[in-house]
Amino acid sequence: MRILLVEDDRQMADYLHKALAESGAVVDQAADGREGLLLAASGEYDVLILDRMLPGLDGLGIVRTLRASGNQTPVLFLSALGEVDDRVEGLRAGGDDYLIKPFAFSELQARVEALLRRGSPDAPETRLRVADLEMDLLKREVNRAGTQILLQPREFRLLECLMRHAGQVVTRTMLLEQVWDYHFDPQTNVIDVHISRLRGKIDKDFDAPLLQTVRGAGYMLRAA
Fold first, then answer.
1. In terms of CB atoms within 10 Å, which end of the chain has fewer, N or C?
2. Which cellular component terms (GO) are annotated to the entry (predicted)?
């Protein structure tokens, strides 16, 4: 966790720096608004902790400038200005939270942790794996036991759907909707044809079959 602390009260800044570092954070520090903005604009921080009243450029100015440039790093305001209008102004300027001085460090720490959770969504899945079958969603590549398998675009989508539901029965209706974008049954054997082609590519030359037909229900991809 990397934090930028912008606070011109030296005693307060040193105390927070020490406490945050002891909790495991890497902390950079600035004592005026212009230096704080320069550091914050690098986009290298997980959370910004900003005093509102700063020399050079106040905290509101820092946040407004960052947000206007597309920087969405979570911001926690620290301020002795604690009236409702002050808090509203800070949040409307682009702040994510607002803590009034004086405060307990345990509360600041909890608020920073909450901002980290809010600002760090789960990374999108880029690889799927079932037994020795692997799919790279970014490179659009499929390998089984180290052997590359070349798939047509529709076959790739079909396999992706099956891999995302590995160990579960995938019905014909699910395949029609997710792979062909059909919300009705065209009464053709299009699924059977593509399943047969896919099975020939991912199972034919390998010892253990992965693609199984569940009679009367649909298909399932799972290790034997």
1. C
2. cytosol; protein-DNA complex
